[in-house]
Amino acid sequence: MAAMIGRIWGAFNPPTPPKSKDALKFGILGAANIAPLALLGPAKSHPEVIIQAVAARKREKAEKFAKSNNIPEVKDSYQQILDDPNIDCVFIPLANSLHFEWAVRSIRAGKHVLLEKPSVANSTEAEILFNLPELSKHDGPVLLEAFHNRFYPAWSFFRSLINPADVVHVSSNSMIPWWGTGKDDIHFNYDLAGGTMMAMGTYNFAALRMAFDAEPEECLSCDVTPGTEGVHKKCDYDFTAKFRFPNGAIGEAHSTLKGPTLWTPSHVTATHRAVIISDKTLPADQEKAQSREVTLHGVIHGIFWHRIDVKDVFEIRSKDNGSVIKKWTEKKSHKTYSFSEAGGEFEHLPGETNWMSYRYMLEQFVNRVKGRKTQHWVSQQDSIAQMKMLDMAYEKSGLGSRPTSDYTVTME
After folding, report:
1. Do 28 and 55 contact (CB within 8 A), yes or no?
2. Three-state DSSP class for 325?
3. Which one of 32, 74, 264, 301 has the fewest beta carbons within 10 angstroms of its own beta carbon?
4. Inter-axis angle of helices 153-160 and 202-212, nearest 10
């Protein structure tokens, strides 16, 4: 308990090293509630990041936000941030429906973009955004969908414990208690590209894709509880989806924004088929089989708490008739709040136990902008594939994919 308290205290009260002369200056589009957690806090401990400016729909809101977060400049509009040559990077935590337009505008203004997930409203927008010609230029802007949890050490270690080729089933669950959301939240506004799949579900779907290291071939089912009136009508309050992946593998995902009163951590479980492994101590007429189940508890915000459980089931079988001669189970649990704790291939990677997943992500974003090596990344094609999976599920649910922006883009 003491370690957890110290770790979390350190995350919200990080050391503040001097900023370098060539630090990247960020502008924030929107005084969003997620910004302090996703960028402002992590920026404090990064010597190459300065939060320079913020803009909101209403200047008064931006001024209040800037004052409470020690941001030196307030702009009258999002466009003013893009027009400022002193701004290097833009963070976009706007409503999902606005991601596409302002990401395109930012890139065409020459800004590097850290874009809240989900990246856009649907795969049509994703295909356009992530294929902008500016992104393929050698010195072009950097664009990253902010899937922060995928940069956290526990996720990397979890993936190192599974063999996607042998995974036959993956389940992923997440939730937010009913008291954590309200009817008027943007998550429940169809016009703003809302819905539980767009909010929490995008984590679940990404977990399936990463565990299988493949894309779904079909959404077999997607049961939802939608709103019934106005802007809520096509927004899912919860969902349960089932996908078929290559070789008949099955992925299942569930989430709700109206969950029980008590919060439970998100988790993902990958189940492997039994495989024959070498054991030279066995007689010639026997073989050893192993099946593995790996569960990561705390998929989204691992710094607060997480645990990786590994259950290996071993069998000694007769080669003649396949009968089981001996069977036993071995269980292990791991916690990896830093890459050094993960050890092995990860121990040299940067990070501290009090770094949140957002801080790990910011490290890689800055490295990419600076032209340095990145150990982890979410590629353009990855983000497109993610939106295709979301569209697939929404179409199967009967709600349809989220509406496409009216903003027109000319591919130069």
Report:
1. yes
2. strand
3. 264
4. 40
Residue range 182-224, pLDDT digits in tens = 888 999 999 999 999 999 999 999 999 999 999 999 999 999 9
Contacts of 146 (CB under 8 A, 6+ apart): 38, 114, 115, 116, 117, 358, 361
| DSSP labels, 235-271 | -EEEEEEEEE-GGG-EEEEEEEEEE-SS----EEEEE
Distances (CA, A) of 187 to 93, 181, 302: 13, 9, 23
Structure tokens at 53: 């400016």
Q: In angstroms, rounded to a whole number, what is the distance separating the alpha carbons of residues 342 and 161?
A: 11
Structure-block tokens of residue 18: 């001097």
For residue 42, count CB atoms less than 10 angstroms from its CB and return exposed for 0-12, middle for 13-18, buried for 19 or more: buried
Of 41, 28, 6, 174, which is closest to residue 106 (Cα–Cα)? 28
Residue 50: count of CB within 10 angstroms of its CB: 18
Q: pLDDT band for position 412 (50/70/90)?
A: low
Helix, strand, or coil (residue 97): helix
The pair of structure tokens assigned to 207 is 């977990």
Composition of the chain by helix, strand, coil, percent to 5: 35, 25, 40
241 φ, ψ to 5°?
Answer: -125, 150
Average pLDDT over residues 228-247: 95
Q: Which is nearest to 392 in space by CA: 126, 94, 147?
A: 126
- Average pLDDT value for the chain: 96
**Cβ atoms of residues 149 and 299 within 8 Å:** yes
pLDDT in tens, 42-99: 999 999 999 999 999 999 999 999 999 999 999 999 999 999 999 999 999 999 999 9
User: Does residue 85 have a cis peptide bond before it, meaning omega lies within 30 degrees of 0?
Assistant: no
The H-or-E segment that residue 31 falls in is none
3-state secondary structure of 183: coil
State the pLDDT at residue 305: 95
371's tokens: 């032209």
Four-residue CA torsion sign, 152, 153, 156, 157 = negative
Q: Which residue is listed with tokens 């192993």?
A: 290
